Amino acid sequence: MKKVxxxxxxxxxxxxxxxxxxxxxxxxxxxxxxxxxxxxxxxVGNPMLRRGAAMHxxxxxxxxxxxxxxxxxxxxxxxxxxAVAELEPPTAxxxxxxxxxxxxxxxxxxxxxxxxxxxxxxSTIPQWMFKTDNRVTYPDxxxxxxxxxxxxxxxxxxxxxxxTGYYTRLISWYTKGGFTDELGKFHKSxxxxxxxxxxxxxxxxxxxxxxxxxYTKIYDAMVTAIRSVLPNVKFVGMALANESPQWFEYFLDPxxxxxxxxxxxxxxxxxANANSGQKFxxxxxxVFDKAESFINSVNYIESIRKxxxxxxxxxxxxxxxxxxxxxxxxxxxxxxxxLSASVYAYFFxxxxxxxxxxxxxxQLVGFPTQFPDVSMINYLNxxxxxxxxxxxxxxxxxxxxxxxIRTDIDGNDGDNILAQSFEDKGVKNVLILNKRNKSIxxxxxxxxxxxxxxxxxxxxxxxAAITSAVDGDNVGLKPxxxxxxxxx
Length: 488
Known about the structure:
By secondary structure, the chain is of the alpha/beta class.
């Protein structure tokens, strides 16, 4: 009996010790650095963003209300009729330009981001521009998936005039009121939108299996041609699916570019996916392990950038999580959205500390059959989900220019909780996230009593953060919770 009592007492002591040891410590006088980071998102073109589609109105309303800068817009290859304006090559007597299905979604995007910087990337090259054994077909139905359309490795026109002509005309359609086609006929659009940033292709290392040398030639040709239409546009290069050092070493070396070609910004991506066959109970470990591994890659990439092209900015413009292959066609656990939202908060903290300029969550809309696990809108009820609300919480409260403050959690090695403090114009914010699928208590300094707390967790669901005040000297974090504590 004594042994049992001692064991129970020991467990109680251990729990008390752990509770006391999880203590937040903030040294407001110790400024580590100044944040350059802007949180934002990407919008990928797909049928659910077409006018009349179930998710259209709520999605664009959420985008407008988010009021974000550097939003990335990417019509992409599985829906050729929604992404490619010239699906067939010109003949001797006609051209086949058609924006009728592309315009509505694109105009809705541009109107709902008006007044903000945007990054456009019509990433899909018409497949007839590549050397292929047979004609590359595409679905007649614009909503049908055509996975076989994208790709292409060798352009049929090695001068790249065909390629650059397509893009300068496409850009002129949206910025110059129209364009003159290959046969000298003018096509009027009436659009005069501002495009501050243009990203050259998407994941060329994956989609086109390009070498950095080949991509750099295309980049230089595209930049030269597009600047003849938009002399003030800035360019984003690479948009890599993988963090291959060879790409960064080659592309960021100005010696590998033509004279006068700007290296305004680079971009690359990370999806912290669950392992194949993994059940949800184990996701918390695999996705955060992969997120941490990515941050290690960022450290190395930053050393290359600073050495070769220190004035080039960085946009990590696709950040998300994927479910495992075993769960790909099953209903997604509600807690998954909080886990994924917590991962984005992790990315924001760690990338801010490394001076990354733009931190983009992927993506506004996904739905069953089309990467539902990266959606920021709940495709069941069309409401913004936890991934959206965490982005908005960060975007509304932590601005570029904020001071990054020394922050520690005593007795925590970063395995369960991560916290980071920011200060801007006298307002102090602490962003805290729970990496684990369990509730954790964090002891707060005395100065936090009465502070405002905004919480996104299982209780907030598909709603904005729940607000409360610090009552006492502890704050509880439910599974995968993200909290922002504001002191003034």
